[in-house]
Amino acid sequence: MLTQVLPAPFSRPLHSAAQCRALEAGDHQPPLMERAGLSLAKLALALQPHARRIHIVCGPGNNGGDGLVAARLLLAAGREPVVSLIDAGKAAPPDAARAFAQAQAAGVTISQGWRDCPGAGLLIDALLGLGLSRQPEGPIAATIERINAQAVPVLSVDLPSGLASETGSVHGASWVRAQDTLALLTLKTGLFTGQGREAAGRIWFDDLGMAVPADGPCQLIGANAMSARTTSWHAAHKGSRGDVLVIGGSPGMQGAARLAARAALASGAGRVYLGLLGETGDIADPGRPELMHWPAAKLGDPAAWQGRVLVAGCGAGEAIAALLPTLLTEAERLLLDADALNCIATDPTLQAQLRERGTRQQSTWLTPHPLEAARLLGCSSGEVQANRLAAAEALVQRYRCGIVLKGSGSIVLSPGALPSINSSGNAALATPGSGDVLAGWIGGLWAQGGASAGQADQLAMACRAVYWHGAAADAQNAGPLRASDLIERMHSLHQRP
């Protein structure tokens, strides 16, 4: 059944290339390639119902075979498909060779090599799919460049050519920018993280009538992650909704800490305290009088933290370094962001203290963006982005805590769990303070879960917060999204039944 994937209403499994190939194995009736070509032809007609000419760029593998089947069916539907067959010196597999012979016999126009197609209303990218094993080069790379230069919408088959199916990574400029992508048999991890969302555009899915495995190496976070709302009992009071202490905001950067505290408050936490490293008096936030001031003299007092979730590092600068040894050894529930992460990345002693928290059953979450993750791993941000799932897993293994690796397709992972990739959000989140809002929101949900919330509960809380954060950006109609407005959008989602 053909469905649009995003926005994703439900969490669902994402699968590996090996799982997809296992599904393809064997004798299927009708053949899977015939089913795939039919689904592709139907989607092409639905997306561009008035297009007479359709340019189909086929590679030498089964992805190209899907395109050839679609070409034959589109011809039968009264359209004028034009096929550019890019063989790159490779022999076609049997199913693709059969599809070529059938398309040729049906009278489809097939050109060996690239053929310009003036007047086309749609270009179908059936070049590589799962067949990518290295950086595109030669005729394939040249064809990708030509596809991107066409002034027509692009529909990719299974994956945009040049996108790695399991990592969402690309090589240089050799990747197709599609407006739509039809994923076949399974949803591939790479469509949803790294460069995947930008490359794929709108994502459609057809399981081709196959029984897709109910599990995979990771899962996609859907809107149902937000449905597990904290129950509002009539007898509840602010003390039963949990306490959050936000520590950060050195001179000149107090806005970051205030954004985190406002987000914790908007998420529903009962009492939110703001401990500014650049002390400014008794008013925590003149714009939000509900926020309570935490005196500087008590910032390093573990007895005063008891029972509270601590969110540390937002706008903290180097001033957080002096507090980190105590935070790492004494805080029961600790979320570290921004400058706290940068300080830990440069100090082996702090890294050891972070790892030791797990042995003492102290709960920790880190919320790095790719550059902060790279510093924590001792590598480059490019290496992190080349395999975001592996980077998140390496962080969990090294520091023994929960991780939210931010970015396009944020990854949420905790020890012993499968990674989750967020399906919500867009480029509007690339705005100053967005990460501070997310850190505060996670802290606020965590506080409401209570001190007894276990690892599975914390993971669910983080997934919920990340989806919520992205959903608020998806609700943005146009223009830039300011972080303070993001909080209000998230709060308005909170109020919906």
Strand content: 15-25%
The coarse overall form would be elongated
Radius of gyration: 25 Å
The strand count comes to 19
Q: Order of strands side by side in the largest beta sheet?
A: 2-10-19-18-17-16-15-14-11-12-13
What is the terminal separation in angstroms? 30 Å
Main pleated sheet: 11 strands, mixed
User: Helical residue percent?
Assistant: 25-40%
Low-confidence stretches: none
* Average pLDDT reading: 92
Count of helices?
17
Estimated structural class: alpha/beta
Question: How is the topology of this model organized?
Answer:
Elements: E1 2-4, E2 12-14, H1 17-24, H2 32-47, E3 53-58, H3 62-76, E4 80-85, H4 94-106, E5 109-112, E6 120-126, H5 138-149, E7 154-157, E8 180-184, H6 196-200, E9 202-206, E10 218-221, E11 243-248, H7 254-266, E12 271-276, E13 292-293, H8 302-305, E14 308-312, H9 324-330, E15 333-336, H10 339-345, H11 348-359, E16 363-366, H12 370-377, H13 381-386, H14 388-399, E17 402-405, E18 411-413, E19 420-422, H15 434-449, H16 455-474, H17 483-494
Helix pairs in contact: 2-3, 3-4, 7-15, 7-17, 9-11, 10-12, 12-14, 15-16, 16-17
Outline the structure in words.
- With 497 residues, the protein is an alpha/beta fold.
- Helices cover 37% and strands 17% of the residues.
- It has helices at 17-24, 32-47, 62-76, 94-106, 138-149, 196-200, 254-266, 302-305, 324-330, 339-345, 348-359, 370-377, 381-386, 388-399, 434-449, 455-474, 483-494; strands at 2-4, 12-14, 53-58, 80-85, 109-112, 120-126, 154-157, 180-184, 202-206, 218-221, 243-248, 271-276, 292-293, 308-312, 333-336, 363-366, 402-405, 411-413, 420-422.
- The strands form 2 sheets. It has an 11-stranded mixed beta sheet, sandwiched between helices.
- The radius of gyration is 25 Å and the shape is elongated.
- The two termini are 30 Å apart.
- The relative contact order is 0.11.
- The model has no long low-confidence stretch (mean pLDDT 92).
